[in-house]
Design goal:
By secondary structure, the protein is mainly alpha-helical. The protein contains nine helices and no strands.
Length: 296
């Protein structure tokens, strides 16, 4: 095939904007094809599982390294930053959870949640095509079709991951409800709060309690997913702007300049989004666990 024909063949098979976005929004899952439903319990998203575990290992590894190198003297920059982070989380936990015994577990939990979510969110800073292109090369070398080499690298842009974390927080809240109030006391609260203990109101109270638990869990997971999914999508659109830059005429140069400015501006703004969403998820975890310690 001549160089001219090869170029024409590449152009003919180049994905359009819709196909490019759809490809980058498709998970590497156990079915080997595109996931049709937003939440599908029969499908395991391998990329989400891999990158979430990897970011968890990185976060725990950094905390372990800080603890291992901690000194009683003047701390270095890394130790000082980690101590500042630990103190910040501890102060937030003290203001919400008044039980010192509970804080021994909840404070480290909140710190782990913050660091883990932050690192998973921060995967959005990698170039959109970097890891997917690497995976396409690996997948092609194994005999697969590179066009079907799907990979998503931001775990918190997968609603299955964020719901999994929020559901875990729900289980922790249920545990503390029963631990602090006793199983009988908690069941009594389920049927007598918030409207009163009259038997006629028991079904209404119970339904309201279920709605409260469901609303907290769903909003907890949806908030993080929505923000990170939107950020990931904007990075893809900015990447499309850069991909459309061809030639050396004035419009294409302006398009490249716009791609650079938009990418830089969104990255700088997204730093705040990444940190803020991790902080909000941590704070909501503390608030919900704190509410489990209190009666209605």
């Amino acid at each position: 095939m001549s160089t001219e024909h090869a170029a024409e063949h590449a152009v003919a098979h180049a994905p359009n904007a819709g196909e490019y976005v759809a490809h980058h929004l498709t998970y590497l899952n156990t079915t080997g094809h595109k996931q049709t439903a937003l939440v599908d319990w029969s499908v395991l998203n391998i990329d989400t599982l891999f990158f979430s575990i990897a970011m968890g290992v990185v976060g725990v590894g950094l905390l372990w390294l800080a603890a291992r190198k901690a000194t009683s003297g003047v701390p270095g920059r890394f130790q000082g930053f980690v101590e500042l982070l630990v103190e910040m989380v501890s102060d937030q936990a003290k203001g919400i959870i008044h039980s010192e015994t509970s804080r021994k577990f909840v404070s480290p939990l909140a710190l782990t949640v913050f660091i883990w979510v932050f690192f998973m969110n921060a995967m959005d800073f990698l170039p959109v095509d970097l890891l997917p292109r690497i995976w396409e090369g690996i997948y092609g070398s194994m005999g697969g079709d590179p066009h079907h080499a799907y990979l998503r690298v931001v775990p918190t842009a997968d609603i299955n991951a964020t719901f999994g974390m929020s559901f875990t927080v729900l289980l922790i809240c249920l545990y503390y409800n029963m631990k602090i109030k006793g199983v009988g006391g908690w069941i009594h609260e389920l049927f007598t709060a918030p409207f009163g203990s009259h038997p006629v109101l028991w079904p209404v109270n119970f339904c309201m309690q279920l709605i409260e638990f469901a609303a907290k869990t769903i909003s907890h997971g949806m908030r993080l997913f929505g923000n990170m999914f939107a950020g990931e999508l904007i990075f893809m659109l900015i990447a499309l702007m850069g991909a459309a830059w061809t030639g050396f005429n004035a419009p294409s140069i302006l398009l490249f300049f716009g791609h650079f400015v938009a990418g830089l501006a969104w990255t700088l703004f997204h730093i705040l989004v990444v940190a803020l969403q991790a902080f909000i998820f941590m704070m909501l975890t503390l608030v919900y666990v704190g509410q489990a310690h209190e009666g209605h």
